[in-house]
Specification:
Elements lengths: L1 E4 L14 H4 L16 E7 L9 E5 L6 E9 L6 E6 L5 E9 L5 E6 L3 H15 L8 E4 L7 E2 L2 E2 L1 H7 L17 H10 L3 H16 L4 H14 L7 E2 L11 E2 L1 H12 L4 H7 L17 H4 L1
Helix pairs in contact: 4-5, 4-8, 5-6
């Protein structure tokens, strides 16, 4: 078997306050301590061979774990393509309905995977097979649920640590060193990458307590915000990305953080992570003229 170990983080793939219509798309990819290809896949919709036939659905790079319900019909050449994409409330089925004409180049949608650990395991299994290494077993995952670490009605870090997997150094087959944190911050900040932000939040909690979760990450972040002169009452955080509408922060709080980082020893790293108006990231096509661009 290929076993994906996700137990560094509590199993919280999506925040309950995220809108269902958002969870379908790549920018709301499920959060996990084991992520591959940013936990999303591309679904290609291609016309069938004859008019009236069902369209072809092709997930790239591998099967995502979602059940794809194909209600897309092939129409005559020259007609307009139209598509509706819906996710069921359980998050298990994606229904595609619409029309795509013959000889159409195809439509592409970036969709979130259903299970990050299974997706990573399937990618590894595929990579092994491509290199002539047969895997006869299944892809399995190890999760750490909130219910498993309850003690006397409260989440227990000690219980989490007892359940987390432990591996001896001599069992390691290989390791890959990641890029520096400063480079990951650039991806998060310049491109507004939600998965990076959610994983960063949980990683803060993991470094502070041994368990990565929204609660441990927010608690760690709040301690930092206090250093910037912000009180707990001035900031209400519910996730790392801002997808939750329950996040509340005052303009004054943002200014305090910016003032603090302006005097910080890692000031340049922080500034380098920000998108530059008219040049890169989410601001590449904005504010190309005027004081914002000039400075």
């Amino acid at each position: 078997d290929v076993v994906s170990d996700e137990m560094l983080f509590l199993h919280e793939p999506h925040d309950p306050s995220w809108a269902l219509e958002n969870v379908l798309w790549s920018y709301s990819a499920p959060v996990s301590s084991l992520a591959a290809a940013e936990n999303w896949f591309q679904l290609e919709v291609l016309p069938g061979e004859t008019e009236g036939s069902a369209a072809f659905l092709r997930p790239v790079p591998v099967d995502s774990g979602l059940v794809l319900v194909n209600q897309v019909k092939t129409t005559s050449h020259g007609r307009e393509a139209w598509m509706g994409v819906d996710l069921n409330p359980e998050g298990s089925h994606v229904t595609l309905r619409g029309e795509i004409p013959l000889r159409h180049a195809g439509l592409k949608y970036n969709l979130a995977v259903r299970d990050a650990g299974v997706f990573a395991g399937r990618l590894l299994k595929l990579a092994l097979a491509q290199r002539g290494i047969a895997v006869t077993g299944e892809v399995k995952t190890r999760h750490l649920s909130a219910l498993e670490i309850l003690e006397q009605g409260k989440s227990s870090l000690d219980a989490a640590k007892r359940l987390q997997s432990a591996y001896r150094e001599e069992q390691k087959l290989a390791s890959v060193r990641t890029q520096p944190l400063s480079e990951s911050l650039k991806v998060m900040m310049k491109t507004s990458n939600n998965l990076y932000a959610e994983m960063m939040l949980r990683n803060l909690g993991a470094h502070a307590t041994g368990l990565g979760s929204v609660d441990t990450g927010v608690a760690t972040l709040e301690k930092f915000l206090e250093k910037t002169g912000n009180s707990k009452n001035s900031v209400s955080l519910n996730d790392g990305s801002g997808l939750s509408r329950k996040n509340l922060i005052t303009p004054e709080s943002v200014v305090r953080v910016l003032q603090y980082m302006d005097q910080h020893s890692h000031r340049d790293v922080f500034l380098d992570s920000l998108p530059v108006a008219g040049r890169d990231g989410t601001l590449k096509s904005r504010m190309k003229k005027g004081p914002a661009f000039e400075h």
